[in-house]
Amino acid sequence: MNELHGAGVALVTPFNSDESVDFEALGQLIDLQINEGMDYLVSLGTTGEVATLTKEERKRIWDFTVKRVNGRLPLVAGIGGNNTAEIVEQIKAFDPTGFCAILSVSPYYNKPTQEGIYQHYRTIAQVSPLPIILYNVPGRTGSNMTAQTTLRLANDFSNIVAIKEASGNFAQFSEILRDKPADFLLISGDDPVTLPMMALGAAGIISVVGNAFPKRVAKLAKLCAEGNYHEARAIHNDLLQITDLCFVEGNPAGVKYILKKLGIGHDTLRLPLVGISEKTQVAIAEEMHKLN
């Protein structure tokens, strides 16, 4: 899965002020990522507010994204949730044309055991027409997928090819990297730890802040892949404060506000998410001025 090396971006879903999908802004966003050096795109990951989209909207967004990308970059589709049977039906109905993999978040809210997580992904792997990227994000799901469960899945299913890891647990990252199959990829799921994770051996990042700063994030991943950590550290340090501000009032509220400031769509979100406060808006504007 060479397509999954380097910098990927979890695309936001732009909304008009009436909360309908803003396809014009989505097209602008896609072109920005491609023109500024991103290596691949993730359509409708959790950053894309997929939980608030209808089945029809998801299909329209995927169809639009495939056509707009037009083979210029690899595409990953986000299909995950906490109802295994429903995810199976979504995957069976999904048209994989134009996509190289499926990113599937570990089941949230239910707080399954490790065996439950294993069986969830086992069931998905048996029906998926595309390779699967596991996604461990305990801060959102309420449960951690351990290194042992990740390694068990990686060894048992050849079409489970990578994990997007957002646990923040470096002991867990190290165990995965030490014991994984040679072709299984560890991908950073947190922008601030991209550099140290890639220094350990991660393949890259699926970024949120890359929506707004694709050139910097792509360059950071490229420098890390080349072992040029001196130059990579400068970009890492430049992005630390703006990344923190992107998440301080929830994702993707912060990065949508930055995109609005850059002239790409509105900062509209669907409830239960709301826009960032005036205080955070001011802080973001000040940091953007410094970066530019």
Automatic annotation (TrEMBL):
Subunit comment: Homotetramer; dimer of dimers.
Enzyme Commission number(s):
4.3.3.7
Kindly list the places in or outside the cell where this protein is found, as annotated in its UniProt entry.
Cytoplasm
The record, for NCBIfam families, names: dapA
Checking InterPro entries in the record gives: Aldolase_TIM, DapA, DapA-like, Schiff_base-form_aldolases_AS
Q: What would you give as a GO molecular function for this chain, any one?
A: 4-hydroxy-tetrahydrodipicolinate synthase activity
Assigned protein family: Belongs to the DapA family.
Pathway annotation: Amino-acid biosynthesis; L-lysine biosynthesis via DAP pathway; (S)-tetrahydrodipicolinate from L-aspartate: step 3/4
Quote the function comment for this protein: Catalyzes the condensation of (S)-aspartate-beta-semialdehyde [(S)-ASA] and pyruvate to 4-hydroxy-tetrahydrodipicolinate (HTPA).
- What does the UniProt keyword field contain? Amino-acid biosynthesis, Cytoplasm, Diaminopimelate biosynthesis, Lyase, Lysine biosynthesis, Schiff base
- What HAMAP family does UniProt report for this protein, alphabetically? DapA
- This one is known as 4-hydroxy-tetrahydrodipicolinate synthase
**Gene designation:** dapA
- Site (L-lysine inhibitor binding): residue numbering on this chain: 51, 82, 86, 108
